[in-house]
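Case study 2.
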Amino acid sequence: MPDFDVEYAELMSEIRVASLAKEELPVTAFFDTFSTLAAENGDSPDLEYYPVLKEGSKGYRIDGASFDELEGDAGDLHLAVCIFRQEGDVPSLNARDIDAAVDGVERYFRSIASHDFIESLEESSPAFEAAMQIRPYLWKIRRIRVLVMTNGHLRTRRSAFETRKVGDVDLTINVLDLGRYARIASEGAEPVEFDFRETAISPIPCLPASTGTEDCTSYLFAIPGPTLAAIFAAFGNRLLEQNVRTFLQARTNVNKGILRTIEQEPGMFFAYNNGITATASAVETTALSPDGLSITRVKDFQIVNGGQTTASLLYARDALKLDLSKVYIQVKLSVVEPELIAETVPRISEYANTQNKVSLSDLASNSPTQVRIERLSKEVKVPIRAGELTQTCWFYERARGQYKNLFAYKSRADRRALELRYPKTQLVTKTELAKYDLSFEGRPYHVSKGAQKCFNRYVTSVLAPQGDATALNAIWFQRAMAKALLFRELDSAVSRSQWYKADRGYKAQIVTYAIAASAERYRLAGQQIDLDAIWNEQAVPRGLLAWMLEEAQRIAGILKNPPDGVRNITEFAKKEFCWTTYVKPHLDVPPDGVLQYGVTLTHYTDKARVANKDERKNREIDLDIALVGLMPQIPEIQAAAEAEGLASPKNMRALSKLAAGNLNLSAGERNALKLLLERLEIDLKKS
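Prediction:
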């Protein structure tokens, strides 16, 4: 049970710091924190911030919105509303508070269909901007999902809030309060747990399947179509394993064959469809007479393959009004020990989705690439500046909660030492890294699509093609953190500027486009911003920052005055043509006085090339050390290779050389040996 007093104090401290640093209202900082958590947990997609408020008995309020196009032309409209209170003690909320907040959301949604209502709004207002975001999707909305975000502790006897009807559309209610925030922030994604006696009326008969290991047991069963659709309706994208959710971006195009089978041959669905692959951390079962077994309850349920099938069932039920009563879906459920979930589930996800060109495990926090970046953050020390006594590091948080857990269960002295070594100002999350790097590389339109989609794009288009990953070295990491400094300094400068205070809004879009434009202008001059100098000084030169602030003001003028026919600035910034047509063609080389903060592209790339070469040498040395540790096992490995039919001239020659103490292997022999060890599942790191 979380200590709510401690969690509340820490949360409010974090919000105050963010509010002061960014010169924004505390409720805005609160929205940023909770909406990020909600997106990572699967409660919602990335939400756009729209602080819409009208007070009074017929007032309304929303704080964020996003449309999640799930199948075909249909999708879910996500609307967020904040109940944010600044009190000394933990605020206490009840069901009436939630109902009142949802009433306000519903009133706003009903209003935006009215032409008179739209005409009554100022075009520069968040209420108008949000309405313009939602109106194009009105006819596509299959379900409205309201997310109530609050820093209070919800106390209610209700197990769930009832679904409302808004016309023909269902409105569901989800609450992210202090208790859920504390659990998700410390433990990662919140588990999905349900009882088949409630969702399916009765337990589901199953067939236990032996896996040959005590760490994982499996069950095979057929789940009724209405049950799976109801579970997906209740939990939404939280049901999808995070890698799948991130990779598919919650968009599962309708399979016409699936719908045709449901409509014309529902009884054959089980035979025609491949079914779903799922995981859980625990199940409760009950005996069926005489020798049968059934599943009653499932904990940590995640669908790792079959998201399209699942979403299509809900689409068939709600949008097409098809009868699912004769539809059954085969399920392979693997129950994994809780301590092995983080490691095992991404692998099951990857192997179950082998049709995807990009490995889903690449998107996981424990992928080799992410682990490599984290390792660099521990190895690369920040240069000590004059007068400083402690050398610090940048902390790369590849998985939510790592930074917070670093200080858990430590003495005050140990926490103080860790805070000096890893100051919070030098914390970078994986989604932030994607934002900083893609901005600098000229893709602000991808950054503007939100943290999760930006990270997906970054992993699949930048990190995945790294090959042997020698490009991920100390120089790469130093420059990545320099980009973080550059982005954060400009973001802060924009917040403090008079021109922004006079006309607030769209700061996230302004900053990413300004970074992209500034870097591109240097490239036009045959230069690159000197990131190495920024890293060495751990600061952005004043002259460079002042010039980039002017660039940000110019970019703001472009974004806030979109072309005719474009009324939604947020959506405009997400389009590639915003960059390629309205920003990039109007860039030229920086003034002479600003070019002093750059280096030639040749110098910039040469330094990276040397670092890649050094990294390759270091890795070869690491491999040689591992191979030395492998020498005592050579006879067993040779025998296993021959027994498994994996022996080849190259890998056998490599093994013979090692047995004789010779590490001078050719490139072909090294590669053949590494492939053999992988196939035999021999980990060099543990040798």
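Residues 249-253 have pLDDT under 50 and may be disordered.
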